[in-house]
């Protein structure tokens, strides 16, 4: 297999159901032999949809991408509560489902919009004393998690059938949509779990631009390599400042003096790019001066 150690950027893949995020990473590593690969925003095996993968130097860009908001669509099954809060878990409670036609779904969605205090699922990757909570839950240990503040920017609910709601949600980093399904079920009074979940957006990235994982094994990597987003485009949400080749070389050597010729910084961060559009560094304002945050080798 061709070694592609020079592949740097962000690859958007459409992860299928019943594949873990770690398995998706492993498959891309096999196809793009020799490339360092990591994922952004873990997707549960029973969830599908957009999974951004960082390739090569793209792994260094994760801090500027991981805080992005996410958008999901899916189905919440009412009247059945599971220990994992999704359809793969053990049923721990059942309740009759009230007539959904009598429920003000817009009003219910409004109750769960804005800043919320959310208790994460017991079966989650959150660690306590270095051990993921899902491992403790599987061992039958009593799992208690502290509430965390999340933000729901938009939530839409619609009736799918007599015991299921379709939904779409735009939410902040750290939001557990399985926990949102649980809380909606409690508000309705019958319990609920996540029947299906699809991530359709991750910050500026969209599922429509993702490469299919289904054809990955049959690919020699050329199609996926062509689909890799350059880092300058992946970090397009940062202000872009141009630097010439000499300045780029200086930045890559860690020389801060190159930043002295730039305009006075405002609050926030900016991306330094070459005239050819290649990312050189991320810089930030500190005490009224530009400082290097991360340098990306050529």
Structure description:
This protein folds into 3 domains: 9-68 and 204-233, Pseudouridine synthase; 70-202, Pseudouridine synthase (2-Layer Sandwich), CATH 3.30.2350.10; 238-295, PUA domain (Archaeosine Trna-guanine Transglycosylase, Chain: A, domain 4), CATH 2.30.130.10. With 298 residues, it is of the alpha+beta class. It is 18% helix and 35% strand. The strands form 4 sheets. Strands 1, 2, 3, 4, 7, 10, 11, 12, 13 and 14 form a 10-stranded mixed β-sheet that branches. The chain has helices at 21-31, 105-111, 133-138, 177-188, 222-226, 231-234, 245-252; strands spanning 9-15, 37-39, 48-55, 70-78, 80-82, 91-94, 114-118, 127-128, 131-132, 148-161, 164-171, 192-202, 205-206, 211-212, 239-242, 269-273, 279-286, 289-295. It contains 7 helices and 18 strands. The mean pLDDT is 88. Strand 15, helix 7 and strand 16 form a beta-alpha-beta unit. It starts with 8 loop residues before the first strand and ends with a strand.
């Amino acid at each position: 297999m061709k070694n592609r150690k020079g592949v740097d950027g962000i690859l958007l893949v459409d992860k299928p159901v019943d594949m873990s995020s770690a398995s998706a990473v492993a498959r891309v590593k096999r196809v793009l032999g020799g490339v360092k690969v990591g994922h952004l925003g873990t997707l549960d095996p029973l969830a599908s949809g957009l999974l951004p993968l960082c390739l090569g130097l793209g792994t260094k860009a994760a801090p500027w991408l991981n805080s992005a908001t996410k958008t999901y669509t899916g189905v919440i099954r009412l009247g059945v509560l599971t220990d994992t809060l999704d359809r793969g878990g053990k049923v721990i409670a059942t309740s009759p489902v009230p007539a959904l036609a009598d429920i003000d779904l817009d009003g219910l969605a409004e109750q769960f919009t804005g800043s919320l205090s959310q208790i994460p699922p017991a079966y989650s990757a959150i660690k306590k004393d270095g051990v993921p909570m899902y491992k403790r839950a599987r061992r039958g240990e009593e799992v208690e998690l502290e509430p965390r503040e999340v933000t729901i920017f938009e939530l839409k609910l619609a009736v799918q059938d007599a015991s299921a709601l379709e939904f779409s949600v735009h939410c902040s980093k750290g939001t557990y949509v399985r926990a949102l399904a649980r809380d909606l079920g409690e508000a309705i009074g019958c319990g609920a779990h996540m029947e299906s979940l699809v991530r359709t957006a991750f910050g500026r990235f969209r599922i429509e631009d993702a490469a299919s994982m289904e054809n990955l094994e049959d690919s020699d990597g050329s199609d996926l390599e062509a689909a890799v987003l350059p880092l300058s485009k992946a970090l397009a949400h940062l202000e872009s400042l141009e630097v010439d080749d000499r300045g780029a070389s200086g930045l890559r050597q860690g020389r801060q003096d190159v930043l002295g010729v730039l305009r006075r910084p405002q609050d926030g961060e900016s991306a330094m790019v070459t005239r050819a559009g290649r990312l050189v560094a991320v810089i930030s304002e500190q005490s009224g001066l530009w400082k290097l945050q991360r340098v990306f080798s050529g």
